[in-house]
Amino acid sequence: MNCADRESSFTTNMGRRGVTWPVLVGLCLLLVAGCMYRSPGALNEPDMSPPTDEQAKLTEDLKSDVIALSHGIGSRNAALTIKNVLRAERWITGRLEALGLVPKRIAVEMGGAVVSNLEVTFPGNSLVDEVIVLGAHYDTEIGSPGANDNASGVALLLATADALRKSRLDRTIRIVFFVNEENPFSFGLQMGSRVYADQAEKRRDDIVAMVAVDSVGYFSNEPGSQRYPIFALGLPSRGNFVAFGSNKQNIPLLDAITKKFQENSTFPSIGAASDAKHMARGDHAPFWWRGYPAILMTDTSEYRDPNYHLPSDVFSNLNYPQMARLTEGFIRTVEKLGNRSTELLR
Question: Are residues 92 and 72 in the same domain?
Fold first, then answer.
């Protein structure tokens, strides 16, 4: 029985025994406190100094990409606005081609209509068969322009693709822009990351790590700006960090990536793992189902961002200078993960 199931069973049984609500809440909090794992490492204070020239340019690039997707195209959901999904696909293709990259279009059948995942590959050298997948979905909840969820993740991976053009790595890196992560496709047969993971398993791809990048642009340094589900206790109260999350089976990968990020960036970060059902939300989950190690990188979305899945998820809410610092650290981390000197336990 996992933590979420134990919590439900515990609450039901205690209620039947007549335990009062305040006592029940306290006992429940003690129970779930043991259900979350936190990676080693200190939480830094955010860097509020003026940006470097490189950070200033990256800030503008990230903002421009988020605006293009969320404001220029708008809501992108194949159940209602499939034309905008196709526009977003063409826009991402154009951005990659402008970098000199050739994306592979991977069709996702929609009962007549076809939408696509987009993949760009950076072949490795000595460990070419070991693959690291970096993914971000480009669709949105119906009616939301999706600036943070998930134009921010798309923009971060476009910047990563630009940087990897100049890198020589041992492992192969694939950057994938997934379609159909949001409702009504989540966890269904037309979920882009599920289609991708299923095909990877059939090919017997040796995916040694997968990182899903989802909602990474909302930042607040105010106390009390960070909230949590019940199973997450003792974590920071300010929404000024990036979280790496996984289930407990993937703690080795979680710890490895959290450690590498903290070694290569001063941007505040934590790693946390739980087997609660909430942790399976996102494009990392289909990789779990196929036995691949995978984690999520996020600003924690609705536990920080009041605009989650709403029409108010617009580009002006995001903190691009801090997003640029996060992106710098992510790129350095990916480069380290791509080198054979970094051991990825499986």
Answer: yes
